[in-house]
Design a protein that fits this description.
single chain; alpha+beta; two-stranded antiparallel ribbon; six-stranded mixed sheet; 33% helix; globular; 10 helices; Aminopeptidase
């Protein structure tokens, strides 16, 4: 257990800027794999509290990776973009205090997770990770994400809705991006209806258009194009944040998010994040896996199945754990 708290404030700000984007990939990430750990029929309980290295199904096995979790001088966050009672976006963010670096792992909202307990959890829609928050709250989602990420500890959470993202972008007085194609998109079933019409070219987006830019789904290469655009947005937002007086920005942004961090924690440690070199100190990753249509209870939905072995490799690299199989 860490005896201190720290935050990467600039990354925090830019992550919450991107949460409505679904900073995730729904496309085909490869072929299905044979791994019993990812057995769709296996249920997992979600306890009220999850300790370091303890998976949600109650196992507590010491491994080199879990030992690294306990010894590491990292602080980890779960960032949630909320749409009603569901999480439209889920991002695991980890800040390496010693090296002043950050890693962001985006977790698709359609990630398959079969919860144990209530019979209704077995319904088709309830088997997606974005349904966990509405049923089991913040702690439940933290436990599920921790389980998927090999028991990694999650120290803090950040929750934000669309209006918060829009306001924070306006606090930054806009974010510059290069719109590579004319963005035209309509979703008349959204509330309010979503209508996107952003011309191509380099431009500074205000809050409303930034949200539309982040929610756009019309790329020719589907979500691969979307995630590239959103990565550019995050880095541009970070550069813009660094050009401003960070404490006033944090002070204002703080009122538009829900988090278990105090404003004094954000302000006290935000100065350290300014030292980050964006070209090498910010690493963005998408949870590895593949998508597949499955039918449960007569309902067919598209799910994302993560690859536990690749997830382990990502975390071992992040926590500098030697892979003895190499």
């Amino acid at each position: 257990m860490k005896h201190f708290l720290t935050v990467f404030t600039l990354v925090f700000i830019c992550v919450i800027l991107s949460v409505t984007a679904g900073f995730i990939v729904y496309g085909k990430f490869g072929t299905p794999f044979d791994d019993t750990e990812n057995d769709p029929d296996k249920e997992y309980e979600i306890p009220a509290g999850n300790q370091n290295g303890q998976t949600p199904d109650g196992e507590d096995k010491k491994t080199p990776l879990k030992e690294a979790f306990e010894k590491s001088n990292r602080v980890n966050f779960l960032v949630m973009g909320l749409e009603g009672f569901r999480t439209d976006t889920i991002i695991f963010a980890s800040y390496d205090i010693d090296n002043n670096k950050a890693d962001l792992i985006s977790i698709p909202r359609d990630t398959y997770f079969l919860r144990g307990g209530k019979e209704e959890y077995k319904a088709a829609g309830e088997r997606k990770i974005n349904a966990v928050y509405g049923d089991n709250g913040t702690q439940g989602l933290k436990n599920v994400v921790s389980h998927i990420l090999k028991g990694v500890p999650i120290d803090h959470y950040v929750k934000v809705r669309y209006k918060g993202v829009e306001t924070i972008v306006d606090i930054l007085k806009g974010v510059e991006v290069n719109v590579k194609e004319h963005m035209r998109y309509k979703d008349l079933y959204d509330d309010p209806p979503l209508i996107i019409d952003i011309p191509p070219g380099r431009q500074v987006l205000d809050g409303k258009n930034a949200v539309k830019f982040l929610r756009y789904r019309g790329y020719e290469d589907a979500d691969l194009g979307r995630i590239n655009a959103q990565q550019e947005f995050i880095k541009s937002a970070m550069k813009k944040s660094m050009s401003l007086k960070i404490v006033p920005v944090i002070n204002t942004a703080f009122h538009y998010v829900n988090t278990d961090m105090t404003i004094s924690q954000l302000g006290a440690y935000g100065i350290e994040a300014v030292k980050m070199d964006l070209s090498k100190d910010l690493n963005t990753i998408t949870l590895p896996g593949y998508t597949e249509d499955r039918t449960y209870g007569g309902v067919e939905l598209n799910y994302f199945f993560h690859d536990p072995k690749q997830v382990e490799q990502i975390l071992m690299k992040m926590y500098n754990v030697e892979d003895k199989n190499e």
